[in-house]
Amino acid sequence: xxxxxxxxxxxxxxxxxxxxxxxxxxxxxxxxxxxxxxxxxxxxxxxxxxxxxxxxxxxxxxxxxxxxxxxxxxxxxxxxxxxxxxxxxxxxxxxxxxxxxxxxxxxxxxxxxxxxxxxxxxxxxxxxxxxxxxxxxxxxxxxxxxxxxxxxxxxxxxxxxxxxxxxxxxxxxxxxxxxxxxxxxxxxxxxxxxxxxxxxxxxxxxxxxxxxxxxxxxxxxxxxxxxxxxxxxxxxxxxxxxxxxxxxxxxxxxxxxxxxxxxxxxxxxxxxxxxxxxxxxxxxxxx
Length: 287
Ligand SMILES: C[S@@+](CC[C@H](N)C(=O)[O-])C[C@H]1O[C@@H](n2cnc3c(N)ncnc32)[C@H](O)[C@@H]1O
Known about the structure:
single chain; alpha/beta; Rossmann fold; seven-stranded mixed beta sheet; two-stranded antiparallel ribbon; 12 helices; 9 strands; 15% strand; binds S-adenosylmethionine
């Protein structure tokens, strides 16, 4: 004989499901409105504000205090990443990687666009001789690389021995042209140098609630139609603590790299998607 569930418990479980689904629906609508309604520049401004409020990345915060991740240490010890030298570090947050790279003996030039994190980053850099930091974005790097000035212009003197695109920072470039411009800038500032990058992989955000999630595509298409804009690309999203982001498949990362003249010398999906790109000519004689 099966035990009956009391009516009050059934009612509580139903109310919980309704509340949970309502919250997911509200988040979905919020994300789609933001994706549809903001320009690439406005998204960057939102991301800078979002990350400025995330003190997990600054000294004292759990992410900063964790130091380098095991997969980062392993990648840094993998050829063709050099064992020493000058490293250009973008999307540097509050200096977690700067501190780790400096401890390993690298000289780090770091930049970060979120003002509060850039402030923390500068303080961390000041404690590591040979390192320096500035408030700047990947768009500023592309600009400086083509001789257009800006906050990074003075930092790009001698070529770098390696480049690190800080943890998942590439995924915050949701504009395809901005990603292309970044990859195109790297050989100019770090000719022949390997590039360590990481990114958000294709898995979803744990959006397991199928009924609510099924509303996303029609809403996305409808908003694009109503606003006369292209619909957000698959893999584009927004989260309150992470800003706008783009998820990538491994193939998309390799295509992006190949278009800029790089190939993957290392490409791992676990425990966090990351790759070391090497200039094709360096590894395969320009083939
Ligand atoms: C997940 S956080 C990682 C921060 C830091 N690298 C760490 O691991 O502690 C991603 C970083 O990418 C930065 N970012 C976002 N958009 C960027 C852009 N357009 N140019 C450069 N960095 C960007 C964010 O401000 C943020 O600091």
